[in-house]
Structure formats: structure tokens, C-alpha cells
Design a protein that fits this description.
Blueprint lengths: L30 H4 L35 H14 L20 H7 L2 H4 L11 H18 L3 E3 L5 H18 L7 E5 L5 H8 L3 E5 L9 H7 L4 E7 L11 H10 L3 E5 L19 E3 L2 H4 L14 E3 L11 E5 L2 E5 L17 H37 L16 E3 L11 H10 L6 E2 L9 E3 L7 H19 L3 H5 L12 H6 L17
Helix pairs in contact: 3-11, 5-11, 6-7, 11-13
The structure holds pyridoxal-5'-phosphate.
Length: 514
């Protein structure tokens, strides 16, 4: 096997030829194809059922579970895990996703029994430490954003967006302004923004971007009316630019009686440096799984707490933690509550522990430094590549991500997609492609603060070599890529729309005798 730049083995056999002993068999069979349903991986004593207490509801057919030995099961999952790219195996420069290193200290803390082994229905007197942790996390999220309240429980950024917009809707209903049915969304927004507004029954009015990649302030002012409920704005925006007129936008939105929802997924670029509350935001979700280094992207669940301004604080959902006479309490009902709860229990406890660990181990100065390093790294990538790639918005320095468009590929027969696939063969996860939509053939690169200069240089060397090769006419390398991945080009749309999640007993395998 040859080793590529990132040290990942690349000599993977084609489907069906995987030599025995190869750790990277491309066709990993299903559990049911490794073990059969007739045998069990464990020795159990023969049971003679003497007293059926199930009232006739006892199972009469076999369970149809695959019987594997422990090493067979172990190897199956380890082999599967090796087919994936992960932040632990190489750089993952996916823009807008903040794929930073997840410090192992976070994991150690999350596994403390007092956090890991508690149950959401335990009496609160027995989980005071966990509640204190939630209280502290809330405190620091509000401090970092200068906001009045926070709802911890949403389980993803998109879930947080929904909650924030529900709070805005509740606030306007309470003021007798239910007629506000329009939400302004810049064209550069993440798809979850218009989807959230539409899900709540709002009609979405797009706001164009200016030629320099920032939101057109005049277009926002022109679109404001007594019918507008809110604007959903991302800052830094998805072109990687800090909106220079964000305060003017907030002022105009408030003057029109509307609210400012901020998509905070890009908080990593400004945490500890800018407090969004100072910019006039009313609600913002914070992706703990991006900015605060809790595992995501197949590595773990998300957590999307939402901070709320003074005006929206009364519309926060339950539950929340409050200091009472006998210590911390979990408030699960309030009189006249507008929203109730948005999750069954209290949210992702493990993510809270990891996020607070990240905050406390960095300190206020360390968080600001992380944001500044993230911005520095993105500008380094941009500076190293801008002579070979095309930069759609050259007027501003970039924030935490470097954005290129596909005009440098004009006349090469290589598309953004082909280019991204070629990066896989070099051992890197592709950048974000075709987003933001306002840029033709966009390539959005977010290196994050956790990559070293050596890694950034290796990445930039590969990117430069690929760009030079594409321009010199070697399109075959790109259109055929990936050659060294376990799979070639996949029908990703079909995989997402029609996933096959259930093993069906093949017709030629008879149902076992009862
Ligand atoms: C990631 C992201 C979201 C959605 O967050 P999820 O946790 O994936 O639901 C929303 N907006 C932007 C700009 C993002 O980058």
C-alpha cells in the first residue's frame, strides 16, 4: 500500500478483489451476511419455558438477529469506521461546518459518571452538579453574546432556528401583531433559514447580495413593512464576510417593529471578540457542535442553544435551570407559557459538558485567540491560493472561511464537483461546494484554528498542484476522481432520498423453523 500526504493508505483494491488481510475491504458485508440468524455469538444455557407469563404474547417466530462473535462484531465496526474520513484522520475543510479538533479533555469530562450515568427523570436533588453545569454554560453563552436569556434544549442549529423564530412569532402574537407574515432572508443564507421560516407558515422574501458579497442594506430597508416579522441574517455571512452595516440593518429592522434573527453558526469567527447582542440581534442559535468543539458530522449528536434578547426572553421555552431555596431547580412549567418545550427532556447533556469544558480550558482570552486564529488561518489559505484560484469578493479580508468561485476552471472541462472529488484522492475531505448559492461554482474552505501551519501548507500545496494540473488540461484526473476512495461517484441524492436502512431476508433464505 502506498501512503498519501495525510498518511492514509490509498492502495485499496476494487470492489470484490479485496485481498484477505486488507484492513480496507471496500465491500464490507452487512452484519447479517457475516453472521447468520441460526447461530448466536454467545453461549446461553438451554431454556425450558415452564411458565409462560406473557398471556399469549410470547414471541413465536425467531428474532432474526445476526449471531456474531465479539471479534467479528468488533472488526465489522472498526472496518466500517476506516472507510470514513474523519476530523481525527485528516483535515476537514468543509466551509460553514467548523470541523475543528474535538479536544480529548472534553471527552474525559463528559464520561464522568456524575454526568454520563444520570437519568433525566432523576430527582433534582440528586443531579445538582449537572444542573450547575447547565447553569454555568447558560451564563457563559449569555456573557459571550450579551443577551438576556438562553434556551439550551434545541438539538441542532436548524432546531434552534425553529425555536428562535417560534419565540419571535409568540412575541408578535402577544403584541397583537399576528398579521406580520413575511420573513426577509438574504440570498446568501443557509438553506435552513428559509426552510425554518416557511415551516412556520411565513412567506420568505429574498434580499439580494451586493457585488461585494455583503447584504444590500437599501434592499433591506425597501423590503421592510408592517407585514415583516423578522430578518434572518448570518454574520459573518456565508461568503465569509463580516456584514459591515449590521448595526444599521438591526436599527432599520427594529424601527419597522420586526425582529433580528441571527444565524450564529459562524460564531467561531467572532467569539470572545464581538458580542452579537451589541449588534442588535434578538435571537441567535449557537452550534455547540461547531464553535464549542463537540463532535459532529457522524461523530455525535448536535446541540443548538438559542440566546434571546430582553424582548424575547419572556418567550423562552421550558425547561430551564433556576436557583431556588433548596439549590438549583429545573423549571418545567411556567404560567401562561407561550412555547412549552421543544424536546422531550433537557437537551444533549454530553454536549453541554464538552462545550463548557472547551470554554473553561480556553478562558476568555483563549476563546478570542481561537477565533482570531481561525480568521488568520482562513486568510492564510486565501493568500496562498488567490493567484491560482478566483476570488469572487476581493474587497474585504475574509473572516473564518476562504471563498473561491469556479471561473479559474473556465475552459478546462473540470467542474467544482470534479475538483472537490480530486481532493479526496489526496487524502483531504472536500471543501463545501456550490454554497453559498450567490457565487457560481462556489468552493468554501474553512480550515478552523486547530490546523497547524504544516497542515495548512500541505493542503495549500495540494490545492495549488490540482489547480495547475486542471489548467494544464489534465481533466481526466478530475472527471475520474475519486480513484483511491472505497467508492467512486455515488448517487448522493438517491442515497439521501431513498436510503435502505433495513435488512430484508433474501428470498432464497428460508424463514427459520419456528
Ligand atoms: C450548520 C449550519 C446550520 C444548521 O446547523 P445544524 O446543526 O446542521 O442543523 C445553519 N446555518 C448555517 C450557516 C450553518 O453553517
Amino acid at each position: 500500500m502506498s501512503m498519501n500526504n495525510q498518511g492514509r493508505p490509498t492502495g485499496i483494491g476494487t470492489a470484490g478483489t479485496g485481498a484477505s488481510g486488507s484492513a480496507l475491504l471496500p465491500d464490507e458485508p452487512l452484519l447479517f451476511e457475516i453472521g447468520d440468524t441460526e447461530h448466536s455469538g454467545v453461549d446461553l444455557p438451554e431454556v425450558t419455558l415452564t411458565n409462560d407469563r406473557l398471556g399469549g404474547f410470547g414471541r413465536s417466530t425467531r428474532l432474526d438477529l445476526a449471531g456474531l462473535t465479539e471479534p467479528e462484531a468488533m472488526r465489522h465496526y472498526v472496518r466500517l469506521s476506516r472507510l470514513n474520513h474523519s476530523i481525527d484522520s485528516g483535515m476537514y475543510p468543509l466551509g460553514s461546518c467548523t470541523m475543528k479538533h474535538n479536544p480529548r479533555l472534553n471527552e474525559k469530562m463528559a464520561r464522568l459518571p456524575g454526568f454520563a450515568d444520570i437519568h433525566p427523570l432523576q430527582p433534582v436533588s440528586t443531579v445538582q452538579g449537572a444542573l450547575e453545569l447547565m447553569n454555568q454554560l447558560s451564563h457563559w453563552l449569555m456573557t459571550l453574546t450579551n443577551t438576556a436569556a438562553v434556551a439550551l434544549s434545541p438539538k441542532a442549529g436548524a432546531h434552534g432556528e425553529l425555536l428562535g423564530m417560534m419565540a419571535i412569532k409568540a412575541a408578535q402574537d402577544a403584541k397583537g401583531e399576528a398579521h406580520r407574515r413575511i420573513v426577509l432572508v438574504p440570498e446568501s443564507a443557509h438553506g435552513t433559514n428559509p426552510a425554518t421560516a416557511a415551516f412556520l407558515g411565513y412567506s420568505v422574501k429574498p434580499i439580494p447580495a451586493r457585488d461585494d458579497g455583503t447584504v444590500d442594506v437599501q434592499a433591506v430597508k425597501d423590503a421592510l413593512s408592517p407585514e415583516v416579522a423578522a430578518i434572518m441574517l448570518t454574520n459573518p455571512n456565508t461568503c465569509g464576510l463580516f456584514e459591515p452595516q449590521v448595526i444599521e440593518i438591526a436599527q432599520a429592522v427594529h424601527d419597522a417593529g420586526a425582529f433580528f434573527y441571527c444565524d450564529g453558526a459562524n460564531f467561531n469567527a467572532i467569539m470572545g471578540v464581538v458580542r452579537p447582542g451589541d449588534l442588535g440581534i434578538d435571537a441567535m442559535h449557537i452550534n455547540l457542535h461547531k464553535t464549542f468543539s463537540t463532535p459532529h458530522g457522524g461523530g455525535g449528536p448536535g446541540a443548538g442553544p438559542v440566546v434571546l434578547s430582553e424582548a424575547l426572553a419572556p418567550f423562552a421555552p421550558v425547561p430551564f435551570v433556576r436557583r431556588g431555596q433548596d439549590g438549583l431547580e429545573l423549571v418545567e412549567h411556567v404560567a401562561g407559557e407561550a412555547l412549552g418545550r421543544v424536546t422531550a427532556f433537557h437537551g444533549q447533556m454530553g454536549m453541554y459538558v464538552r462545550a463548557l469544558t472547551y470554554m473553561l480550558s480556553h478562558g476568555a482570552d483563549g476563546l478570542a485567540q481561537a477565533a482570531e486564529d481561525a480568521v488568520l488561518n482562513a486568510n492564510y489559505v486565501k493568500a496562498r491560493l488567490e493567484h491560482l484560484f478566483s476570488v469572487p469578493f476581493p474587497d474585504y479580508p475574509t473572516m473564518h472561511e476562504a471563498l473561491f468561485d469556479d471561473s479559474f476552471l473556465n475552459g478546462t472541462d473540470v467542474s467544482t464537483l470534479d475538483f472537490a472529488k480530486a481532493l479526496i484522492d489526496e487524502g483531504f475531505h472536500p471543501m463545501t461546494m456550490y454554497f453559498p448559492l450567490v457565487v457560481h461554482g462556489a468552493m468554501l474552505i474553512e480550515p478552523t484554528e486547530s490546523e497547524s501551519k504544516q497542515t495548512l501548507d500541505r493542503f495549500c500545496d495540494v490545492m495549488a498542484e490540482l489547480a495547475t494540473d486542471a489548467k494544464s488540461g489534465n481533466s481526466a484526473r478530475f472527471t475520474a476522481a475519486p480513484m483511491k476512495a472505497p467508492r467512486r461517484r455515488l448517487d448522493e441524492t438517491r442515497a439521501a432520498r431513498q436510503p435502505i436502512l433495513k435488512w430484508e431476508r433474501p428470498a432464497d433464505l428460508p424463514q427459520a423453523a419456528e
